[in-house]
Automatic annotation (TrEMBL):
GO cellular component: early endosome; endosome membrane; Golgi apparatus; plasma membrane; synaptic vesicle
Membrane-topology descriptor: Multi-pass membrane protein
Organism name: Varroa destructor (Honeybee mite)
Annotated region (Disordered), positions in chain: 30-50
UniProt keyword list: CBS domain, Chloride, Ion transport, Membrane, Transmembrane, Transmembrane helix, Transport
Entry keyword Ion transport: yes
Family: Belongs to the chloride channel (TC 2.A.49) family.
Domain CBS: 757-823, 848-910
Pfam families registered for this protein in UniProt: CBS, Voltage_CLC
Protein name: Chloride channel protein
Signal peptide (UniProt feature, chain positions): none
């Protein structure tokens, strides 16, 4: 029985059906009873066999009632199967450049049973030569070669059957899962596909596990693959701790260089130069340290007006010089080295690609520029830039491990661990660093990343503390030891500090955003070096007269956190007390005149610090916001603490104070208020909560004061969220237009997918590619005239049923790689199917099945946008396709989601710059 050839396009599933029939024949062994049972069994119906998706969409499926009819059907599409079903005289003849090779027998019509007889006879005589076909594109003709092979191998029968598919350029047996070189990567300012990269890594891991039993070398490779992540974070931690120690030591030396030098050993800062003199008391003159007027032979007294003027001039000169050099280095060699870096790190960890932002030049210039910027005395910190430095280290070291260097999603696991190490070395707070990475910067944070981040932060902190750049006996940045526990009535002033911290943070954020927006839209942005020099000049001139602004910001915070003792000579400790014994508890005392004078100076310092930081944060040098924010809150808290102390002193019998302050001992610690205020202000600026509490008690070593810290931080966050929803980092992300989809924001609108998809109703039709009807020239023209990131692949223009999705970059690479092969012309069709359409004439087609995503994420046009946004957030999608009844309607990208959210919030939807 014969049947007409089917009109459908036979693809991979039908090919496998034909292949299974040939295998069935080849496995039949000769016996005394003749044919095997398997060879006698007919194939019931093609309906029981796998059918291609497109066949189910309306293509007729012929019935095949015997092996012979099945071979006849398949032979219409495979020259080698024509060999199995053709009839002729008595020998095998193979002719070059012929479409059909005839295998003749001495029998009449050939059947599957006849083929088994031929195989048996040829095996006995050992004269049968196996078929091994290579199909090459040679002006549309077949080249058939013969080699002696063993027909008994099923794998070789697969190779025989693959002759018809090798005619398609770019395909070869066994290459279906082999990616083209360069595909799967991403271009600059694009978003990664989390699901695709994670799936690629799982496939890679399965292949590694399968090969572990093939030999000792593969076993070792599997072991190396398993611990490569731990080794990578170990190296990141060591490098981050070492570089942070060098930065701290260099900044400590250069900031003292503004005031003088140690002639006996110029590489020492003032603390180390005068170590013996200042080991016990502060403010004692040091003979080994020379101020700059003394170095140049000035005979002026250190108390004279002329000496102060000269000292101020040297102070201003070095400040401006350091800041100017830092700005020139950043502007010339690494523009990405400016700023804090945390907004960009958050964006990168969410899946955005910014080439060069984590490169080696950025690492070098950021490290050197950070030393210069901090030494210049500007109102900035090094904590945010240290996170950027650590992430640069993580990115560079990730390329030493292909598991992470070649997979953007896996690389972000290393970057999350590196960000934890950055905070760990910035504050000496490893646990706080892990929580900071989890709470503030990371977008994808699985459990194994948590453990590796913990390990990386631990290593970084250990390396840093072994070098001990803080220069004191304690291994924390702002060590405090309060002798008085906090009282319950102090919850009220702690809440007040939280409210004040939230208000100050909101004022700072709004003013800084307005200034940064003005800088971006005005001529000022074209002169970044001049801006830095001017700000450094103003900062140095205005900060020098006030001792609280002249000193380094970290030193100021340390002074404000401290508790007054018997050996303190600071004006903040000018109380009317008589210390007769160091072991005697500190009693309540009235504040002296220097304390009130210091309060006025601290108030002026607060106003100056806030104003100058508004203009400083965002200039083109490395600049963090942690330390300035701590300074705002510490100044506020110290003022409130002194006020509370004096209120209690003058009203000791008030019912609220009577229980805790009835003994006459000091029951209020102004330093504690400074610490609580610092945490509140930093929490309001950054919107951190849990991680900030842990960082603060690691910073100070004061575990007993977690409740006051938690109270003020929560109050600050509530107030700041009520006045403005964005923290400083999220505000700068929106200002720069980065496509960051915040997982903490809720979508409260009732729109659906068709409201956000592109194109909208009434607009031009979505640009699609057909699975077998588009030529190379048409695709090249499509890539040249459009800027889309990818294209849906459909069955045909008349039948827009979705087949898959192909990325623009993968298309470019595939065309550049495969179109240079022989036979491919601009008129060649591009196939996203397994076989060429039948009938077929013309130049050989270009097969690009391997770059097609056959399972893109899709939603219907009536899917709620709340669900769509959750999919983008939780699955890390790059885009999703919108369909109706299986037919493509549009596409929603991450940029479209962000624009839709901004449009509903009455904001400019075009402010999202990149995708």
């Amino acid at each position: 029985m014969t049947i007409d050839p089917p009109t459908s396009i036979f693809t991979r599933d039908l090919r496998k059906t034909c292949l299974s029939l040939v295998k069935l024949l080849s496995k039949a062994q000769p016996s005394s009873r003749g044919r095997t049972k398997a060879a006698r069994q007919p194939v019931k119906s093609m309906g029981e066999l796998p059918i291609d998706e497109r066949t189910r969409r309306g293509c007729a499926v012929p019935e095949v009632h015997s092996i012979h009819s099945a071979l006849t059907t398949c032979s219409e599409h495979s020259p080698i199967l024509k060999v199995l079903t053709a009839t002729s005289g008595g020998s095998a003849a193979y002719r070059k450049d012929e479409r059909v090779a005839l295998l003749s027998t001495d029998r009449g019509e050939s059947t599957g049973e006849d083929y088994q007889d031929i195989v048996r006879q040829e095996r006995r005589r050992r004269e049968l030569q196996k078929l091994r076909a290579k199909v090459r594109a040679a002006q549309g003709r077949w080249e058939i070669q013969t080699n002696p092979l063993d027909v008994d191998s099923d794998q070789e029968i697969d190779e025989m059957l693959d002759i018809s598919h090798q005619r398609t350029i770019g395909a070869s047996p066994g290459d279906e899962d082999t990616p083209l070189h360069g595909t799967g990567q991403y271009e600059d300012f694009h978003t990664i596909d989390w699901q695709r990269d994670i799936a690629r890594d799982r496939m890679r891991h399965r292949n590694v596990m399968k090969k572990r039993g093939d030999g000792i070398w593969n076993l070792l490779c599997g072991i190396q693959d398993a611990w490569s992540g731990w080794l990578c974070v170990l190296l990141v931690g060591i490098a981050a701790g070492s570089i942070a120690a060098v930065i701290d030591i260099g900044a400590a030396w250069m900031k003292d260089l503004r005031e003088g030098i140690c002639p006996q050993a110029f590489w020492l800062n003032r603390e180390h130069c005068c170590w013996a003199n200042e080991a016990s008391f502060e403010g004692v003159p040091c003979n080994q340290w020379y101020n700059w007027p003394e170095v140049f032979g000035s005979n002026l007294s250190s108390d004279s007006y002329g000496f102060s003027v000269l000292q101020c001039l040297f102070y201003v000169f070095w400040s401006v010089a350091f800041a100017g050099i830092a700005a020139m280095l950043v502007h010339t060699f690494a523009p990405y080295a400016c700023g804090s870096g945390i907004p960009e790190i958050k964006t990168i960890l969410s899946g955005f690609i910014i080439r060069g932002y984590l490169g080696k030049w950025t690492l070098i210039i950021k490290s050197v520029g950070l030393v210069l910027a901090v030494s210049a005395g500007l109102s900035l910190g090094k904590e945010g830039p240290l996170v950027h430095v650590a992430c640069c280290i993580g990115n560079i070291l990730a390329y030493a491990f292909p598991k992470y260097g070649r997979n953007e999603a896996k690389k972000r696991e290393i970057l999350s661990a590196a960000s934890a190490a950055g905070v760990s070395v910035a504050f000496g707070a490893p646990i706080g660093g892990v929580l900071f990475s989890l709470e503030e910067v990371s977008y994808y944070f699985p459990l194994k990343t948590l453990w590796r981040s913990f390990f990386c932060a631990l290593v970084a902190a250990s390396v840093l503390r072994s070098i001990n750049p803080f220069g004191n006996d304690h291994l924390v940045m702002f060590y405090v030891k309060y002798t008085t526990p906090w009282a319950f009535f102090e919850v009220v002033p702690f809440l007040l500090l939280g409210v004040m911290g939230g208000v100050l943070a909101t004022i700072f954020i709004q003013c800084n955003l307005r200034w940064c927006r003005f800088r971006k839209t005005s001529q000022l942005g074209q002169y970044p070096i001049i801006e830095v020099v001017v700000i450094a000049l103003v900062t140095a001139l205005l900060s020098y007269p006030n001792e609280f602004t002249r000193m380094n910001t970290s030193d100021l915070i340390k002074v404000l956190f401290s508790q007054c003792g018997i050996g303190d000579v600071s004006p903040l400790c000018d109380y009317k007390r008589n210390f007769t014994n160091v072991n005697t508890p500190i009693e309540r005392a009235e504040a002296g005149p220097l304390v009130y004078e210091s309060m006025w100076r601290l108030g002026a310092a607060l106003v100056f610090k806030m104003l100058i930081t508004i203009f400083t944060f965002g200039i083109k040098i490395p600049a963090g916001i942690f330390i300035p924010s701590l300074a705002f809150g510490a100044i506020t808290g110290r003022i409130v603490g002194v006020a509370m102390e004096q209120i209690v002193f003058y009203n000791p019998n008030f019912w609220l104070f009577h229980t805790a302050c009835s003994t006459g001992e000091q029951c209020i610690t102004p330093g504690l208020y400074a610490m609580v205020g610092a945490a509140a202000c930093l929490g309001g600026v950054t919107r951190m909560t849990v991680s900030l509490v842990v960082i603060m008690f690691e910073l100070t070593g004061s575990v007993n004061y977690i409740v006051p810290l938690m109270t003020s931080i929560m109050a600050a966050k509530w107030v700041a969220d009520a006045l403005g929803k964005e923290g400083i980092y999220d505000a700068h992300i929106n200002l720069n237009g980065y496509p960051f989809l915040d997982v903490k924001e809720e979508f409260e609108h009732t729109t659906i997918a068709q409201d956000a998809m592109q194109p909208r109703r009434g607009e031009n039709k979505l640009t699609c590619i057909t699975q077998d009807g588009t030529t190379v020239q048409e695709i090249e023209e499509l890539l040249r005239t459009t800027g889309h990131n990818g294209f849906p692949v459909v069955v045909s223009d008349d039948n827009p049923c979705l087949v898959g999705f192909v990325l623009r970059r993968d298309l470019n690479i595939a065309l550049a790689t495969l179109s240079t092969q022989d036979g491919v012309t601009s008129g060649s069709r591009v196939l996203f199917t397994s076989v060429a359409p039948v009938p077929w004439s013309g130049p050989p087609p270009l097969k690009l099945t391997r770059i097609l995503d056959l399972a893109p994420v899709t939603v219907t046009d009536h899917t709620p946008m709340e669900t769509v946004i959750d999919m983008f957030r939780k699955l890390g999608l790059r885009q999703t396709l919108v369909t109706r009844n299986g037919k493509i309607l549009g596409i929603i990208t991450k940029k479209d989601v962000l624009r839709h959210i901004k449009l509903l919030a009455n904001q400019d939807p075009e402010s999202v710059l990149f995708n």
